Amino acid sequence: MVAAAGLRVVRCGGSPLHGARAVFSADARLLLCTAGDFVKVYSAATEELVRLLRGHSGLVTGVGLNPHNCLQLYSCSLDGSIKLWDFTDGILIKTFTVGYKLLALYALDSCEDSVFVIIPKRGERDTFQLVSVKLTKTAGQDVEAKEFSVVLEGVDASPKCTAFGREGEYVASVKNFHLQVYFFKRKQLNRFSLRATNAKGGNNLFTCVACHPKEDCIATGHADGKIRLWRNFYHNKEYVFSTMHWHHDRVMDLSFSIEGTSLLSGGVEAVLVQWHNGSDCKKDFLPRLGSAIEYISVSSDGTLYCTLHTDNRITIINSNLRFSKSIQGLIRARDVKTGLVVDPRTKALVLNGEAGHLQFYCLQSDKQLYSLDIVQQEYIQQAGLNQTDLVKVAFSAQGKWLATVEEREEEPDLELHLKLWFFDEETQSFKLNTQISMPHDDHITAMCFRDMDELEDDSLILVTAGKDCLFKVWVILEDTDPEAQQSLSWSCDFVGSYHNYQATNCCFSEDGSLLAVSFEETVTVWDSSTWDLKCTFCHPPGKIRDICFGRLTCSKYLIGATDHGFLCCWNLLSCALEWSAHLNVVILQPDPLSEHIAAVSWLSKESSLFVFKPNEPRPICIQRNLCQEKIQCAAFVPRDVPETVGSEKYVWLRRSQLYLLTDAQELMTFSTKSPEERLTVSSKQLAVEESLPVTPFSLLLGKHRHQQSQGDTDLTKVVRNHHEQDSPAVKELLHTPAHVLPSASFLCPIFINSLLISKEKKSAEEVADEVEMESEEAEEDSDEEKDVTEMEQENTKSMDLLGEITCKLSKAEEKELRKVRKMDYSWISAF
Amino acid sequence: MASYKPVVVPAVPRLGEKVTQDTLYWQGYKTPVQIKEFGAVNKIDFSPVPPYNYAVTASSRVHIYGRYSQEPIKTFSRFKDAAYCATYRDDGQLLVAGSEEGSIRLFDISGKAPLRQFDGHTKAVHVVGFLADKYRIFSGGDDYSSNLWDIPSATEIVSYTEHTDYVRCGCASKLNGDVFITGSYDHTVKVFDARAKSSVMTIEHGHPVESVLLFPSGGLLVSAGGRYVKVWDVLKGGQLLVSLKNHHKTVTCLCLNSSGQRLLSGSLDRHVKIYSTTSYKVVHSFNYATSILSLALSPEDETIVVGMTNGVLNVKHRKPEESKEKSQKKRQPAYRTYVKGRNYMPKQEDFFVSKPGKCVLRKYDKLLKGFQSSKALDAVLEPHIRLYTPEVTVAVMQELNRRGTLRSALAGRDEKQISLLLTFVTRRVIEPRFTPILVTVADMITDIYQPVLGQSAVVDKQFLRLQEAIGREIDYQEELLEVLGMMDALFATLTKKKATYLEENKSNGLTKTLDQDTCN
Fold first, then answer.
1. Do residue B99 and residue B220 come from a single domain?
2. pLDDT (average), residues B229-246
């Protein structure tokens, strides 16, 4: 089976989360949001991914809870179908095929069996209509839903531009400079228009709309940052609106709170604004949310807000405007200039994240490990500003040092900073060690550390290549002055150049003895101990795009890719060209653990992957048509456990895995496993989703309880009764706030004792049973059924009256008393 | 969630001297007191007993100064011609001085007339001193001889005529009462033992020896002559330990500090250099107005006295130790809050919950946080920031520029504020670390206020001054470039040989690859 399996390209992260507003489940414990072709179900309390609803074959564009059954969810997609899900169990209930591209979905309370969707108008481009689709109740999984009626013509495609009013009485939709309101009962359509620009030059373009849940009031957002509240819009002429202005740029989304007392708005400023009572004067802010707010949604009980951001982050906010949680996968950066880098310490992918930050993305859990602030400047969210960008990142072999380059280009100046970070074992984070301003006079094109595993410390060398026609070598200097604050710092050791050509790439050989620097058309090879120029290679007329050394047995080869579509392999021993191939290579990526080199080519709108060993020009593996988009960068990530790969063709996948990042910032990888296999693995990971607040402790306790309940099945119910009795003790332990609890060392014996009692009890019980009630086993069971119910009250009563009741006890009561006497109450004294 | 990040003020590594413990120690002197003597001060000697008076030999007099007196408290002036090298005895009771006419006079500190006079040198005696046994005097004269005198009988004990030139310096061992050392213009330093008939060791200094000094341990000998200060290991038979060349004119005097850890040398190049005696590196240096002839340090380094060729005596007193009571006077918190929880001992199982420290924002940061650019710029143009920490002002300007609000922050200012801004720019624009941003600021100011030019004389004058400053800087840079060009040419001629070698190598590689290509 393994041999038969082909190589498949698998998307493994980075799909855009912001297709539509997220939806909270009715109890606000789950958060449902669209993610590419899937719907993701997150726990609002733990940020855990609980379910992944898969089934759509196109981008999911809208989700909405079924108003008549709050455990069901409608989702619509560009593939023209509406699906009904049971999202708690992840089951697809029904599929309604509409046959049009669906761009937004609205499910209303008031409409019995229909939902509203936005579809493109037949025959016209860029014209959309709001239609109501009747969802027939016929049995069967796949149902055709062709019965629909047009509600509004000429609506905007964005789901933010249409909103349904109080109890579904009217629908408001905005497009360009028009607001149209349609009243369902009266079948009346009112249109309101604004002038394109107002007196002060603001742009009146409508961007979003929201309707008050209790009153007749419509809020609209505009491109100049104004929010207008419309009232009395039943009449075409006598309408009124009030204006509120805080945002300095386009209002991205608006949302009323459940009672309608406050209005939430968000824009590119990354500030969530809460307006109280529809007035301009009273407002609260939650600033610095990271990136522009795309959608705002409110849970149905009003306790939580959720904002979706343009960088794929989901933020959950308490209703008192306190930041609560953030769910972040692969953060979408404006531009991934750093490429994909693997952190040797955590094996996490490192790339541009939030503006000025470096994100460490864990591939296994699809989560961001942490985000390192490199630029350390206040980020100003404003269009047209030249922001500081992180352009280069390099790790030393052990992950002890991190080098970053940031630049800010403002004509005619260029601000460049080279920063070197040292991994602090104590705080387990990177600490800034040296900052070098303007290391080069022009852009830095490449940077690399000399990777030497055994000689980590003082022989560490960093090389930067710049467009100022130089490459510079940086070394660690040790300050011998004992009064100095830090003993290590970096300084420039050598500056090299070659005929005043721009340095474009640099790379060290595996053993660190040679440095290859490419200068436009020429590759120069330098001795890394004396910094002498050893030899040069070129393959005219193409400029060198990428270079790398071979590894392990192929370490005598140097591979280069040129602009004119040639892949060349030079032999370093003979200083001659070994072979060359005609291939337009955009990325050249050597595997650090094997001889294999992956080359990604881009030819006429499709990317292909070639894997080869430098010692033979014939590629081992060719994978054509990876994806439609251009591949931006690639990285080999070492596997923890070598995978068993059957086919000789895929032997390069054994030690490490290749990840590719496309222009759309989707992360892709290769897998030889069939989709089913992968699914089982992922669903296994989801096995622990049942109880929502999953903490390691509750997992442990849960396991314990589980075992107990299994063990208890053969015990008498009295024993179980006592379990329930001492569970408050455990409960108390778990629910008392941590700051009033006594120390753990004090609690531990009590906790363990409370767990042990049942065990003791059981043995005592069994002994008693065996001795005295052997003959009565048959009636025992029925007796006990009765006793169980009385036990709760009797337990305390019998304690108090123990001395008085001496005679006239029934047999059953006597037995009961005996049990009580044997019981261990020592745990009570503890509390 | 992220909080506001304050403006980062870039730290520029301080060029030049680093502030070390030594710098702090040697800078701890008050401003010098200048006393005018009658002629070049050729010797200063501190009395070894309190109150540490010092004898200054200049011209034909020996003046005794008290510690803080600016007038001599006593004068010995019984010399017909110049007096030389007035030196105290170990007990501070007697003073001996040589003279131009060749006689040596011994004075009692309390008396006026000389107690003894030793005649025997035929020429001027430039160096005299007591031996450690207190009863003998050594001397060196321009008649090339070094003599030993007995004080009680005022007779010559022995005369060594081994030097072949003027004997101009000398010193006696503190441990051995028989050993003394003389240095001469014949480039040698000779060690004499009174018990031996001739010198016991000769050290070749290589230059006319101006000063010699023996360490208190007696193991190391320092000689100064020419531009060199050399340290010799006497116990190893006069092996050269280290040669210091830190002056660019003749070194004239040497001196050790009271702890023996630092060596001071004065020179005609107007500098006093202080060396560490462990590493023999210069740890500090003083600068004086004219060439230095003599130098002395009082016990405990309380006073540095330097004598110059123009007869000026420069006296520096140590600043009194700063009392630490001042800092303690700070208002202490109320008794209640002070005592609260003071005697609480954390138990073993307690764990600390650290409270995040409250970040106090500077005024300009608060304003920047509220996007009030104009006010933030006003805040950093306050005199104390503008004058003492210009880097903060420039950092805020840079931040405003990054935010794109610098132009609006600069605009709309009145005459006084513009002239203030322009003064700041004019003054700081030539500092390399500020130049990039201040050029932008200057550009913007000229742009904004061009229409109102000519309305205010003050502002116009400031603009002219700015233009002048920039013009000067441009000229300067051009000159520097010229120098750089010249140096490049020089270096190019120096490395010519190596370059051709590389050229060959390169062409070889190139042709090889080309060959290969054609084969393919």
1. yes
2. 91
Looking at residue A781, its pLDDT comes to: 46
- How close B404 comes to chain A (CA, Å)? 7
Compare CB distances from A576 to B4, B7, B516 and report the shortest one's residue.
B516
- Asked, for residue B480, whether it belongs to a domain, the answer is no
Q: Residue B292's domain is classified under what CATH number?
A: 2.130.10.10
Contact A355, A311 (CB under 8 A): no
* pLDDT confidence band for B113 (50 / 70 / 90): confident
Report if residue B343 sits inside a domain. Answer: no
Number of domains chain B is built from: 2
Own/partner long-range contacts of A110-114 (Cβ < 8 Å, ≥24 apart) = A110/A167, A110/A168, A110/A169, A111/A168, A113/A137
Query: Looking at beta carbons, which residues of chain A come within 8 Å of B4?
Result: 288, 378
Q: Which of residues 371-410 of A touch B (CB under 8 A)?
A: 373, 376-378, 380, 382, 384-386, 388, 408, 410
Backbone angles phi, psi at B5, to 5 degrees: -100, 120
Whether the complex's predicted ipTM is more than 0.90 is answered with no
Check whether the bond before A412 is cis (ω within 30° of 0): yes
With CB atoms and an 8 Å threshold, state whether A539 touches B517.
yes
What pLDDT digit, counting tens, does each position of A731-762 carry? Answer: 777 777 777 777 777 778 877 777 765 544 44
Q: What is the average pLDDT across B200-216?
A: 92
In a domain, B326, yes or no: no
Looking at the fold, whether B301 and B368 belong to one and the same domain comes out as: no
Same domain? B184 vs B284: yes
Q: In what order do the strands lie in the sheet with B251-256?
A: B251-256, B262-267, B271-276, B282-287
Q: Does residue B207 lie in a domain region? A: yes
Compute the nearest-CA separation of B355 from chain A (Å). Answer: 15
d(CA B25, CA B295): 18
Q: How far apart are CA B280 and CA A30, in angstroms?
A: 74
Residue A298 has which token pair?
Answer: 């409110």
Predicted pLDDT at B518: 37
> Does residue B228 share a domain with residue B113?
yes
* pLDDT on residue A695: 62
Cβ of residue B402 closer than 8 Å to a chain A Cβ: yes
Note the pLDDT tens digit of each residue in A165-212: 888 889 999 988 889 999 988 888 888 888 877 777 778 899 999 999
Quickly state the pLDDT bin for B510 (edges 50, 70, 90): very low
Query: Are B82 and B188 part of one and the same domain?
Result: yes
Query: Residue B452's domain spans which residues?
Result: 363-473
Nearest to B509 among A377, A382, A536 (CB): A536
What is the model's pLDDT at position A708? Answer: 60
Mean model confidence pLDDT for chain A: 81
Is the pLDDT score of A699 beyond 50? yes
For residue A785, the model assigns a pLDDT of: 45
Q: Do A380 and B3 touch (CB under 8 A)?
A: no
B162 and B272 inside one domain = yes
Nearest to A305 by CA among A265, A278, A277: A265
A and B: number of Cβ contacts within 8 A? 75
**Whether residues B293 and B418 fall in one domain:** no
* Residues ≥6 apart with Cβ < 8 Å to A49: A40, A41, A42, A366, A686
Question: In Å, how far is B325's CA from the nearest CA of chain A?
Answer: 27
Same domain, B107 and B190: yes
CA–CA gap between residue A562 and residue A547 (Å, rounded): 9
Which residues 250-279 of chain B have a CB within 8 Å of chain A? Answer: none
Q: Note the pLDDT of residue A466.
A: 93
Smallest CA–CA distance, residue A380 to chain B, in Å, is: 7
By the CB < 8 Å criterion, does B520 face chain A?
Answer: yes
State which residue of chain B sits closest to A354, comparing Cα positions.
Answer: B2
For chain A, domains (ranges, CATH) are 8-159 (2.130.10.10), 161-329 (2.130.10.10), 546-674 (2.130.10.10)
B418, pLDDT greater than 60: yes
Helix, strand, coil shares of chain B as percentages rounded to 5?
A: 30, 30, 40
The residue of chain B nearest to residue A326, with distances taken between CA atoms, is B1
